Amino acid sequence: MKLGAPLLIRIVVFLLLVLFLTRPELFAPLLEPLTQNGAPAIYNQGDLLALTLSHLRTVAVATGAAAVVAVGFAILVTRPIGAEFLPLSRSIVNIGQTFPPVAVLALAVPAVGFGEKPTLIALFLYGLLPIFENTLTGLTRLPPAVVDAANGMGMTETQRLFRVELPLAFPVILEGVRLSTVIALATATIGSTVAAKGLGEVIIAGLLSNNLAFVVQGGVIVGVLAVLLSDAFSALGDAAARRTGRVVRAEAA
Amino acid sequence: MIELQHLTKRYGGTTVVDNVSLTVEARSIAVIVGTSGSGKTTLMRMVNRLVEPTSGRVLIDGVDTATIAPFELRRRIGYAIQNHGLFPHRTVAQNIATVPALLGWDSGAIAARVNELLELFGLDPAAFAKRYPHELSGGQQQRVGVARALAAKPNLLLMDEPFGALDPIVRTKAQEDLKAIQRTLGTTIILVTHDMEEAISLGDRIAVMDGGRLLQYASPNEILVRPATAFVDDLIGTGDRPFRLLSLTPLAEAVEAGPAEGEPMPGDRSLRDALAELLWSKRAALPVAGADGAVIGRVTLDGLLKRAARPA
Amino acid sequence: MQQRIDKLGVVIALTLAGAAFLPLATYRANRIAGGEGKSIAEALPAWAAVALALVLVAAALVALIRSSTGLRLGTSLAGIAALALAVGFSAIYLTPEGDRYARVAPGSGFWLALFGLAIMAADAMVRLRLGPTARIAGVLLFFGALGLLLVSGVWDGLSILKEYSGRADVFWREAGTHMTLAVGSLAAAVAVGLPLGIAADRVDRLRAPVLNVLNIVQTIPSIALFGILIAPLGWLAANVPGAAAIGIRGIGIAPAFVALFLYSLLPMVANTVVGLRGVAREAVEAARGMGMTNAQRLFKVELPLAAPLILTGIRIVLVQNIGLATIAALIGGGGFGVFVFQGIGQTATDLILLGAVPTVLLAFAAAVVLDAVVELTAKGAP
């Protein structure tokens, strides 16, 4: 899912987001029509910027960890030593993806208690799947002639992995990281139901106090972050893919 | 000198290569020809141990390749394949530099070698070094593939259908370039192809494979004149045989004394070219020019017809 | 000899060995008291403990040694059955006679052993390369066995079923709401998404904008979208005559339904477009050459050929909706999320499980069955 907005619009949106996070009161008139009975238009139980950064940090930590582990596993099952695990790992990914993120989050609470931890665990576990799947696709669909040439020229297994396979699979891996990030950004909002610090707080406060302005600002910040980050990853991946003259993404979800 | 001794490769119950022995002289081109599934590629891949033989051994200049670590062995042997196998994420220069870099050459030596090879293959370093493979034409990609295989100055070059993906005109040119470069560098080449025409035009010796067995290993002339089995005969194609025979000999070797009319033909062209020209222009003889352009004699239709016939 | 050891078997055997040292069940004096782990030996009468231990050892051995796939599948399924029975017995065994407050739940050892055995079973099934019909049959058998266990009363002592028995009516009502949300929004998404996808395929200028807007909808976090819809639907209910009568309200099921519908549109439209674009040109040309009208071509050639991809879209949507419908509880929309969020609020694990386990099972079953259906239709298409 490529979000085709010209660069200029993205820059403007980004600047608006920064302005909103640093000086939210400027936007109060816009949000006021959504409030009732003189309720505040701008979230007043915490600093929006701090919540946003904490939200992003949770996503970054979980997705980063998921990327390291998922890529590591995908490398393992595509080496001769781990080949026996390849068919099984594929089906585990398929099954795992049917687990709803909320269920993963809810099941993590009894195991580790409230706060950041269950959110991190849920985002981490859920983030593993797209990255693992994409890395696997990237590493198993390399042009056979290229792999043959790498062997034929005397690269060792490790050299082939780091100099040929991973660089070629990079755009596809990045696409997996992009998917995981977008999912994590949205799922992290649910983390606020288990007391994780993040933008979910703003939305839930809005739901509890029946203040639509809160719901909208929380939702829009997350949505804009998702669009911008998704675009950034896409641009990075496209640049890498264009250099190698390869097409990575299919249009379908 | 490359010696293949009793090489056999079995996968499960199927024998892909069956007890093949042959010797390739240094500085010569050996072509392994056969249909798909004949075991020709597997045979070649056992030379640089991309495939480990079930039994038998390969000696390069008397050294058993089984005693050398596979990746070290492969770095000493050039390897060029169909569809070139260029690394799409690396520039032309980086591609050519692959093996020298693996061998730890210093960057100055690598850069010099890359330029030298690009020029040897008629690719302007200024224009091509920084391009990516997908920005090249098929013929250019193929040349870079061969240049990359030759980068670390290997004594032996393995080529698997190197011209398979090229269109006919580009292919003929690439074959001629390869012959010229082989003569200049003196590299020993083992080349795999399914195309008998290519085998005859490139090979000093031709190995014909079928069903994993080596049917005949001989010079092109020998193969054409005395095919060992009906299969080899089929592969040559009896209809083309006289013309293929003529194509093996340069004009300079068949020059007779005597006058002839018209534009002289250079002595390094083949008898087949001369025959075609004679038939086309309805002449009985044409003059032959030496390397300096001066006429050194002639070839006649009668003479060519005798050479095209099965030798006694 | 080394060849006879199965690498995955080593992992499974280690998992089972680890599970044997963890508690099979946890015992709590009442619903919110701290848990107390009970090992296999403590949680079961001696004969049952020995029997379970033997089954687990046998499963580990079968996993470890390279053996026939059928044997591996049989052993792992037998192991799972033994585990399921054992945890039920343990609940009856551990609960003091007549104690209505004591709670026994499966412990970490149970979950780990179940995980190991499920991996073993999954691996065997992957290796058997079951066809689509066999996979659907497998799902039916699984749910049949599960239903049998539930009806038989073996598990009645387990805390999750005690939570259930206290609120059986609510459970089935919320189950109905959950399915209405998930399947109803899917039906609406098919009804709107399919024509929209066909239009986006036919009209070039429509394609990019439609897909872009739907992409952006997907990035809005679900709770926010649910919340944002409260206002317009509330307004509709208040201002459009009859709207309230058909159930449109600011909070409750309506905004959840609309939100799920909006999320479902992208996979539906995108897959319809990709499916139609993927139809071979020759087939379309041939249809045109034979004199089919536009409508005939669409219904007799293009849609049938695009069916596998469109069905894949439906599969994505259904699995996604079953999961997302959990969020509806946050805005009073009901569904299994009610138990999940109540459970989170009360720190009651069993209640969370009562909501989460059916959700996971439903999503899993939907995925397996629809994947099989996709495969069946793809086979039919040339």
Describe this structure in words.
The complex is a heterotrimer of chains A (253), B (312) and C (382). Chain A is 73% helix and 0% strand. With 253 residues, chain A is mainly α. Chain A has one domain: Orthogonal Bundle (MetI-like fold), CATH 1.10.3720. In chain A, helix 5 (101-112) crosses helix 6 (116-140) and helix 7 packs across helix 8 (157-191). Residues 247-253 of chain A have low confidence and may be disordered. Chain B is an alpha/beta fold. Chain B folds into two domains: 2-237, Rossmann fold (3-Layer(aba) Sandwich), CATH 3.40.50; 244-308, CBS domain Like (Alpha-Beta Complex). Chain B has helices at 40-45, 70-75, 92-96, 98-102, 107-120, 125-128, 138-150, 168-185, 196-202, 220-225, 230-236, 241-247, 271-281, 301-308; strands spanning 2-11, 14-24, 29-33, 55-60, 63-64, 77-81, 156-160, 188-193, 205-210, 213-218, 265-266, 285-289, 295-300. In chain B, the strands form three sheets. In chain B, strands 6-7-8-3-9-10 form a six-stranded mixed sheet. A four-stranded antiparallel sheet of chain B has the order 2-1-4-5. A three-stranded mixed sheet of chain B has the order 11-12-13. In chain B, strand 11 (265-266), helix 13 (271-281) and strand 12 form a beta-alpha-beta unit. Chain B is globular, with a radius of gyration of 21 Å. Chain C has 382 residues and is an all-alpha fold. A three-stranded antiparallel sheet of chain C has the order 2-1-3. Chain C starts with 6 loop residues before the first helix and ends with a helix. Chain C has two domains: 2-159, no CATH class; 168-380, MetI-like fold (Orthogonal Bundle). Chain C is built from 16 helices and three strands. Classes of the chains: A mainly alpha (253), B alpha/beta (312), C mainly alpha (382). At the A-C interface, helix 4, helix 5, helix 8, helix 9 and helix 10 of A face helix 5, helix 9, helix 10, helix 12 and helix 14 of C.
